[in-house]
Structure prediction request, 315 residues.
Amino acid sequence: MQFESSGDNGITWVSILGIPLGGGTGVTSATGTGTWTFGVAALTDIRARASAYTSGTAATTIQASGGGIGTAAGVIGLFSACSGTQYLGADAACHAGGGGSGTVTSFSAGTLSPLFTTSVATATTTPALSFTLSNAGAGTLFGNATGASAAPGFTATPVLGFAGTQGTLGLSGLTSGLLTITTQSVAGTPTWTAGTASGTPAVTASAPLAITAATGNLACATCATTTNGGAITGTSPVAVSAAGAISLSGAAGQVPNGTSGAFTATPTLGAVGTAGTLTLSGVTRSIGKTKISFKKGAGKTVIHACRFTLLRLQR
Prediction:
């Protein structure tokens, strides 16, 4: 049912706002049972028109009343249909209104700590609202470093990311490029401490050096080291190059001998209680070996020499 009214004795019909009895939002049509009140001052006619009929009957009763809307809820419901600068006219419809006038009684504003505070000048006439940015602690950033949803604040230990979302920090180059700092996708709480001197961190290494993925440290599995971190040196005939290569060198025709390992052309084999032995092998198919033993007794030296030949015949 469409609620309509006329102000020219039924020549022109327009929608009219009906307020539910007892209060509520005004409507201009209905599809169910109910009771509505209408403001009909200055109107000549009012009707309920069936806009779309399929079957059945509709019982409609229009009753004139000498009073207006009798409850506060009804008044609120009547005016709730109008918004903005509209006003409710005598025809119970909303109309655009013109400008009005009024006075300010008092105006105030709150603050938003820790970001800014506010102040109001001439609060009872022409209010002027001003914002003042609050100071932040030195070396702090504004954010939430708790790892969960929480009110932000200034902190000197910011945290980017949380469980399920990896934190990333990007630094733009002076002319181009982008440096991205992020963590590995594994559990752990490592601490990265920068050195005291300026430089560029190593990101790659050449053999025998390698970078440890877990710590970023340089490692060398085949490099020689000392217990106190000092330089590696060698005592002749041992030498250590600047590249860390260890070598043993001596004069031609000499061999290292003795506890010092010095090269000599007259080596001594054996010691007191241990006989020295020298074995010489042949170089042909007919193998011959000579074994020479030295035994030192009290005040004398005995030399034993034994030679044997093993002949291998082949067809």
Notes: The first strand starts at residue 2 and ends at 6. The helical segments are 72-80. The chain has a mean pLDDT of 78.
